[in-house]
Amino acid sequence: MILKKLLAATVAGGLTLMTGIAFAQTVGPAGEAATPSAEVKLSDADIGALKGKGYKAALLWHTSSDFTNAVSAGAKDEFARAGVDIAVTTDAGFDAARQRSDIETALAAKPNIILALPLDPVTSAEAFRQAVKDGTKLVFLSNVPSGYKQGSDYASIVTDDLFQMGKQAADALAKAIGSKGKVGYIYHDASYYVTNQRDQAFKTTIEKSYPDIKIVAEKGISDPARAEEIANAMLLQTPDLDGIYVTWAEPADGVLSALRSAGNTKTRIVTLDLAEPVALDMVKGGNVTALVADKAYELGRAMAAAGMKSLLGQQTPAFVVAPALTVTRENVADGWKESLNRDAPKSVLDAAK
Predict the structure, then answer these.
(1) What are 186's strand-pairing partners?
(2) Residues forming beta bridges with residue 188, ordered by sequence position
(3) End-to-end Cα separation, the chain, in angstroms
(4) Burial letters 296-326, b for 16+ CB under 10 A, else e
(5) pLDDT at 20 > cutoff 90
(6) Largest CA-CA distance found in the chain, in angstroms, rounded
(7) Is the Cβ–Cβ distance between 326 and 290 less than 8 Å?
(8) Which of 70, 2, 37 is nearest to 297 (CA)?
């Protein structure tokens, strides 16, 4: 996911968080058990019951990005199967007040289903209240308005398999360094549900599954712009690191700059989410060894399916997770397409040839 502005907006909005716990699996913001997205699907009978009814959906997104484009594509394709029209699509630009206006605009079109990522849990709780009163089926991406109850106020929350993202990052780094050595751990130093679970999953996996790998340096980061500075300090204290985990791709680019400035070609980097600068280094055989991503297209498909099942009066799972995938030099073209439903940047594809 594109995190920088979302982190600021979500922390400001007071997202319900779970931190400091060694997760064995992804759990929801209030501890909900996860249901794999593959289990949320429409039968032929469901499709038949939905078609020809004039149902409409609204897609109310927090921003425009490759990620949201892929989520939208998955949702639109699933809705199209059942003849559900997209009445409204909006982009709040990470502005909670603008999102509230978007909700009001969408409600004027009388959608039967709304898919959205609530930016500010408090503001959105009030803004979505009319939709709840109207009987509109709400499916949320990664976040939920304050005080909302699953089943009565909304159908489902859908997000990434956060534990698997962190675990796969640990497995990829371990593979790159031969399952032994010293690693650094740069985690997100803020209370944010998504990154906290991913980071903790990496650390837990290293500590429990790789006894010959030691995390010898740890540093939190809240501002991605400080990543190079933090990495320089870490490398000054522990210059012989075999690998470094970085909480997501933007600060990983700063860590990469620090390694390049030091002439360090040995230390391997693993990070989460897809971005051109780190992917380009990876395919050129640089320090970056793997990128772990979510399946954004599948997130959208599952959100749409959950909304339509709720519209049919069927019970829907409270918390749904889409799979994670590890992207390397060898599968970068397929991985990018699978995650974001688009081709990797031309620079990456050219360098991978």
Answers:
(1) 219, 246
(2) 221
(3) 26
(4) bbbbbbbbbbbbbbbbbeeebbbbbbbbbbb
(5) no
(6) 66
(7) yes
(8) 70
Q: In the prediction, which pLDDT does 191 show?
A: 79
Side chain identity, residue 90: T
CA distances from 88 to 103, 111, 135, 268 (A): 10, 8, 17, 44
Confidence category of residue 13, pLDDT binned at 50, 70, 90: very low
Structure tokens at 40: 């949320």
User: What is the C-alpha to C-alpha distance for residues 101 and 343, in angstroms, rounded to an integer?
Assistant: 33
Chain Cα centroid distance, residue 8? 15
Rounded-to-integer distance, Cα 167 and Cα 209, Å: 10
**What's the pLDDT at 8?**
40
Does the structure show a pLDDT above 70 at 229?
A: yes
Residue 61, beta-bridge partner list: 91
Consecutive H or E run containing 243: strand 243-246
Averaged pLDDT for residues 290-301: 96
Q: Report the C-alpha gap between 168 and 292 in whole angstroms.
A: 7
56/320 Cα distance (integer angstroms): 22
Encoding tokens for residue 128?
Answer: 């979505």
| 3-state DSSP assignment of residue 306 | helix
pTM score, whole prediction: 0.85
DSSP code per residue over 189-239: -S--HHHHHHHHHHHHHHHHH-TTEEEEEEEEES-GGGHHHHHHHHHHH-T
**52: three-class secondary structure by DSSP:** coil
Residue 178 buriedness (CB in 10 A; 0-12 / 13-18 / 19+): exposed
DSSP 290-302: EEEEE-HHHHHHH
Q: Give the pLDDT score at 3.
A: 52
Confidence (pLDDT) at 1 = 45
Give the per-residue pLDDT at 185.
Answer: 98
